[in-house]
Each structure stands twice: as structure tokens, then as C-alpha cells.
Amino acid sequence: MALIPRSFGNSVFDPLFGSSIFDPFENLTVSLFDRAFPSFDKDVSAVANTRVDWLETPEAHIFKADLPGMKKEEIKIQVADDRVLSISGERNKEKVDQKDNFRRSERSFGKFYRQFKLPSNAKTQEISARVENGVLTVTVPKTEESKKKSEVRTVEITG
């Protein structure tokens, strides 16, 4: 006997009483948009959730992206002539046997694509990249001129 009708979402099976019980936290994160377009969030979340940090040091611009479970062969890094750095890739959906069912599927999959306009002090021919423990690190060295410390002078105000 179900306490809550099926139309209110999937219920949790209670092994002690042999009935379905209501899980008040089950749909807490599901919006009306997600209910209307159930596959949209999975397809777009890989793009939207690929977070990248851009750190500038005196020697280089360093980009770090969390890409858990991805191999270097699944990631593509390109630099265009106009100093645009592109990081892209695709995380494929895990295949499951027909006899198995997901109880919950929250990991994102799909293509991701991020672009960054590099400043004029970037040495685009010397870019390096590595993946370690699910973190992609792209290092873009700076030109020698930009590494020099700039002099600070005080401007006198007249009038």
C-alpha cells in the first residue's frame, strides 16, 4: 500500500513494512524546468559545470579545470591565432546492462567547451598541459617583458 501516490515522484521502499513510504527530500533539488525537460539538465550540465580557475603569476597564466574521471585522450586544447585558448572534451554516459537500473544518476555527461582570450603577454607557442588526479592544468608562459617588475611613480597633482 502506497502512502503517497506515484505522481508525486518515486517513493522509497521500506523493507520492514513492505510498503512504499514518502521521501520528503527526494525532489528537493528538482525544479519545474527539470521536470519539464528531464534530459536537458544532464546534457547541459557538463558544459555549465566545467569550472575553470585562471591564476596569473609573474611567470605564467595557469588554468585549472576539474575533470574527474576523464583521460587525456578525451580532452582537447587549442589556441587560435587571435590568442583564444579553447578547452573542450566529452564525458560519455556510462553504459549499464539492460537488467540493471540506476536508483539515482547525478554525474554529468556530455560535451563541454570553454574559451579564454589570452592577454598580449602570453607565449602561445609554449603552452603546456597535464592531467593529474582529475585536474587539468594548462600553463601559458608570459613574455620576458611582462615578467619585469614595473616601476611605480607618483604623479604630482597641480592646481
Automatic annotation (TrEMBL):
<dbReference type="InterPro" id="IPR008978">
    <property type="entry name" value="HSP20-like_chaperone"/>
</dbReference>
<keyword id="KW-0346">Stress response</keyword>
<dbReference type="InterPro" id="IPR002068">
    <property type="entry name" value="A-crystallin/Hsp20_dom"/>
</dbReference>
<protein>
    <recommendedName>
        <fullName>SHSP domain-containing protein</fullName>
    </recommendedName>
</protein>
<feature type="domain" description="SHSP">
    <location>
        <begin position="43"/>
        <end position="158"/>
    </location>
</feature>
<dbReference type="Pfam" id="PF00011">
    <property type="entry name" value="HSP20"/>
</dbReference>
<comment type="similarity">
    <text>Belongs to the small heat shock protein (HSP20) family.</text>
</comment>
<dbReference type="InterPro" id="IPR031107">
    <property type="entry name" value="Small_HSP"/>
</dbReference>
